[in-house]
Structures are given as C-alpha cells and as structure tokens.
Write a structure and sequence with these properties.
There is one protein chain. The protein has about 120 residues and is of the alpha/beta class. The protein has one domain: 3-Layer(aba) Sandwich (Rossmann fold). It has six helices and five strands.
C-alpha cells in the first residue's frame, strides 16, 4: 500500500461521462445513474489526502466533504479564498501539505522486507 493524493484539479482533467455529473455537484444522481456506491470507498485503506478550494465551482467543496465522509483514512484540506486552482493559489501551503502528508509515518509501508512509499 502507498499514499493516495486526490486533488480536485487532477480529478477534473480526467472527466468522463460518468464523472461529469459529479463535477457539477449532483453526486446522488451520478451514483444512482451509474450503479456505484459510497461503500466502495470504505475499501480504500491507505492514507488519502483530499484538497479543494472553498469556492471551487468545477468540483464543489461539498464533494470533497462527501468523499472524506466515506474514506476511512483521510486528511481533508480546504484552502480559503480559492477556487478550482487552489493548489496554484496557495502553492507554498499546498506543497508543504503534500510533503508533510507523504512523509507521515503511516505512509511508509514495508513490503517483502523493503521499505516502500
């Protein structure tokens, strides 16, 4: 296992027909329409970092709140006074937060006697 980083910008760049519904904020419809459940998120056991701007209109902040409510090992960071480009608007803070997250002790995993990230 390794750390997973979920960024609103990275997610939006890979938009598919099924995720277009999510990006406009209608999670419930998208999940009913495409047969997915939030229960699948509980299966993700590695640490996850979710970041978003507090005024993101492409991927509304409520989507990040919903996502983190269903992940068992998650850290949520909402950047103030920012939109979809929060990682650029708060570049120094974002870089520090990602570095801290990746350097966390629980992000280190031992596989076959070797330390991996």
């Amino acid at each position: 296992m390794s750390s997973v980083i979920v960024s609103s910008t990275a997610t939006a760049s890979n938009t598919t027909a099924s995720t277009q519904y999510v990006t406009v904020g209608d999670n419930r419809y998208a999940y009913r329409q495409f047969g997915k459940t939030y229960a699948d998120l509980k299966k993700i056991t590695q640490p996850v970092l979710v970041t978003n701007g507090n005024n993101d209109i492409m991927i509304p902040t409520v989507n990040s709140l919903t996502l983190t409510a269903h992940l068992p090992n998650v850290q949520l960071i909402i950047y103030p006074d920012s939109g979809h480009g929060s990682l650029f608007q708060h570049a120094s803070a974002y870089t520090s937060h990602v570095s801290e997250f990746l350097n966390r002790r629980d992000a280190l995993v031992v596989q076959n006697g070797m330390k991996c990230r």
